């Protein structure tokens, strides 16, 4: 190691990793609530981590990395998100995590189990992405409907591929999401399962009810639809 490299190392106050997580069990939130005392800035009470509990995806990965590397704050960049009750299967959801002030910097793992979470392909990344990362999600959604839906009605779901889904966020900003494939299976007169391959970031629950998302499933099927559960079968980065 020459002197220049050594100085570089000393000046660098963080290290960034990329990886994917697989969630095989329902009931784990993606994000951890910040420390009550400091709102996430880091204080004595939370040991300067900014979080004081470790029961989410964020918490479990942070705890593991703090044990391995030391460090204060772990800052995550997620490639999409899911509900607490959602599973994340297949190759898992990609994430980036920047660890501030690590004591050690080297860690590379093919696979590790943390409770009911599995972390794959954890390795040092150059830095967290600055621009939004484009990705495609394969999602399975359980839907219940107010009125009976028949085969003819459900067939209309195939039209989702022909048009973009228009999504408005809370501030009224408009975006469009593409649907690449749709399959479905009727469970009962008032419920069906839909498998959807769609552009990442489509808000699934709002897409089902049709809440500031057009067309929503309620609109397409002409009956109020409710999302009972949704799972990610795979996530593909473009
Ligand atoms: Zn704190």
UniProtKB/TrEMBL annotation:
A Pfam match is Pus10_C
Task: Please tell me whether the keyword Kinase is annotated for this protein.
Answer: no
Give the Enzyme Commission number: 5.4.99.25
For this UniProt record, the keywords arranged alphabetically read as follows: Isomerase, tRNA processing
Q: Which InterPro entries match?
A: Pus10-like, Pus10-like_C
Q: Where is the signal peptide?
A: none
Q: Where is the Pus10-like C-terminal domain?
A: 18-236
* Biological processes, Gene Ontology terms: tRNA pseudouridine synthesis
Q: Say which enzyme class the record assigns.
A: isomerase
Entry superkingdom: Archaea
Any idea which GO molecular function terms this record carries? tRNA pseudouridine(55) synthase activity
Q: Where are the transmembrane segments?
A: none
What name appears for this protein in its UniProt entry?
tRNA pseudouridine(55) synthase
Q: Which organism is it from?
A: Candidatus Nitrosopumilus salarius BD31
């Amino acid at each position: 190691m020459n002197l220049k490299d050594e100085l570089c190392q000393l000046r660098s106050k963080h290290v960034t990793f990329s990886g994917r997580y697989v969630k095989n069990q329902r009931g784990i939130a993606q994000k951890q609530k910040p420390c009550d005392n400091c709102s996430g800035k880091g204080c004595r009470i939370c040991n300067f981590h900014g979080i004081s509990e470790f029961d989410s995806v964020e918490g479990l990965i942070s705890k593991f990395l703090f044990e391995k590397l030391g460090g204060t704050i772990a800052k995550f960049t997620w490639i999409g998100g899911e509900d607490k009750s959602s599973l994340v299967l297949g190759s898992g959801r990609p994430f980036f995590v920047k660890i501030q002030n690590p004591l050690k910097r080297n860690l590379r793992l093919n696979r590790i189990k943390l409770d009911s979470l599995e972390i794959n392909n954890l390795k040092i990344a150059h830095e967290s992405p600055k621009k939004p990362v484009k990705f495609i999600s394969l999602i399975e959604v359980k839907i219940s409907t107010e009125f009976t839906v028949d085969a003819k009605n459900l067939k209309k779901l195939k039209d989702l591929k022909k048009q973009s889904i228009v999504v408005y966020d809370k501030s009224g900003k408009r975006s469009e999401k593409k649907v690449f494939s749709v399959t479905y299976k009727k469970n009962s007169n008032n419920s069906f399962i839909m498998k959807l391959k769609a552009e990442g970031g489509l808000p699934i629950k709002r897409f089902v009810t049709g809440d500031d998302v057009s067309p929503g499933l309620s609109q397409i099927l002409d009956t109020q639809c409710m999302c009972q559960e949704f799972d990610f079968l795979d996530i593909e980065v473009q």
